[in-house]
Amino acid sequence: MKRILFLVAIVALVLSSQAYAWTQYEAINEVSSTFAMRPVGTKCYAREEPDSPWGYGAWGYVNTPLRKQGFSHLDERLCTGALAVNDETLPTWQRALGVLVVVHEAYHLRRWSAAGSEAKVECKTIRHWKVAARMFGATEETVEDLWPSALASHYRLTTYQDFMGEQPYYDPTCKVPPLMDLEEEQ
Fold first, then answer.
1. Which pTM does this prediction carry?
2. Per residue, what are the HEC states of 126-167?
3. Which residue from 91, 102, 166 is spatially nearest to 131, judged by alpha carbons?
4. Mean pLDDT by 10-residue block, N- to C-terminus, for the chain (186 residues)?
């Protein structure tokens, strides 16, 4: 009788546990793995799902203590934007930010000394945004069309101030690509 009650309790726990629904896309995993320089995965969540980045007030995140496991978590809208980077029926912000956040979270998964630094990660991200957009299949016209939105998202993030008045995403030594082009011309 105790065994039956135990089995019933186990079945009840399994059936009552909340399902975690997320999707992985091979193309996103490939791009993420390229920038992480190792095999990693990206879990894309609908806004209302448990573990959705939206619940944390973010577009994406990496569980810092679990970084070694190699997964980033992204809002499904950004996954869709990155995958459909040439689809002009999607908003510009969604496509540009999708590429930006995929790469940003991938740099957090890279095994390098600055993986925990939002500022260093964001600098690498904006410097490699165009490469990543092309990896998602963006045409040169799309890259040029989305670039201002990617820059705007980057600058908005780097001017963000936390509750301590600090700017965790700002790296004063970061050379953003348009500034690099101007310096090379002089």
1. 0.82
2. HHCHHHHHHHCCCCHHHHHHHHHHHHHHHHHHHCCCCCCCCC
3. 102
4. 40 40 93 96 85 76 72 94 98 98 96 93 97 98 96 93 88 81 45
